[in-house]
């Protein structure tokens, strides 16, 4: 099965990228999983004026991004919580696309510097995912105190995250396989 892990932050000093990379590595190590990590920082989409399908000239990087999501069986979105919601840069990126999300399993991950792990961002992200006809995994991953979880080089410090990520991925893969079986 094919999956995309989407890192949803462009901010300097961002911590969510460590979580995205960690999930990407864990999912890539599972037999039968082909995984691509999309980091919105690498794409630098301008402020959205029109959905991709209505653009006269679609930039190559936007086509590549769209194709990766379209070909994926499932999508894991990782975002920090900024001012009680998910990142504006992520919202801007997500708004370029629509059909790429339909009937896809979606694993949602929120990150925060505080102990709540981005609970407010999770509520908003889940509402968005349902609106675009994604199928949201009921098991979500909240990563609180993210600054204490990884070294500055991105190495895992808090080994308790292993169990949470494994449980999250187990439930996400179950959902992805169930949806895939229904489509066949």
Can you describe what's shown?
With 184 residues, the chain is an alpha/beta fold. It has one domain (2-183): Flavodoxin domain (Rossmann fold, 3-Layer(aba) Sandwich). It contains six helices and seven strands, in the order E-H-E-H-H-E-E-H-E-H-E-E-H. It has helices spanning 16-28, 40-43, 60-71, 88-95, 119-131, 160-183, and strands at residues 2-7, 34-39, 74-82, 85-86, 105-111, 135-136, 141-143. Strands 1, 2, 3, 4, 5, 6 and 7 form a seven-stranded mixed sheet that branches. The two termini are 13 Å apart.
Topology readout:
Layout: E1 2-7, H1 16-28, E2 34-39, H2 40-43, H3 60-71, E3 74-82, E4 85-86, H4 88-95, E5 105-111, H5 119-131, E6 135-136, E7 141-143, H6 160-183
Parallel strand pairs: 1-2, 1-3, 3-5, 5-6, 5-7
Antiparallel strand pairs: 3-4
In short:
With 184 residues, the chain is of the alpha/beta class.
What is the CATH third-level topology name? Rossmann fold
- Reading the helices and strands in chain order gives EHEHHEEHEHEEH
Name of the top-level CATH class: Alpha Beta
Helix-strand makeup class: alpha/beta
Number of strands: 7
Radius of gyration: 16 Å
The percent range for strand residues is 15-25%
What's the CATH superfamily, by name?
Flavodoxin domain
């Amino acid at each position: 099965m094919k999956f995309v892990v989407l890192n949803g932050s462009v901010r300097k000093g961002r911590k969510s990228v460590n979580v995205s990379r960690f999930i990407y590595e864990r999912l890539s190590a599972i037999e039968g999983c082909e995984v691509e990590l999309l980091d919105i920082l690498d794409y630098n989409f301008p402020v959205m004026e029109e959905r991709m399908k209505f653009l006269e000239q679609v930039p190559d990087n936007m086509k590549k991004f769209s194709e990766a999501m379209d070909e994926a069986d499932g999508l894991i979105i990782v975002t920090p919580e900024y001012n009680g919601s998910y990142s504006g840069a992520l919202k801007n990126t997500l708004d370029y696309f629509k059909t790429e999300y339909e009937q896809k399993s979606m694993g949602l991950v929120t990150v925060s510097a505080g102990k709540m792990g981005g609970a407010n961002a999770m509520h908003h992200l889940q509402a968005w995912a349902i609106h675009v006809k994604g199928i949201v995994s009921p098991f979500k991953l909240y990563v609180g105190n993210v600054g204490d979880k990884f070294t500055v080089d991105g190495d895992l410090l808090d080994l308790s995250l292993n169990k949470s990520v494994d449980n999250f991925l187990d439930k996400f893969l179950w959902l992805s396989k169930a949806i895939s079986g229904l489509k066949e």
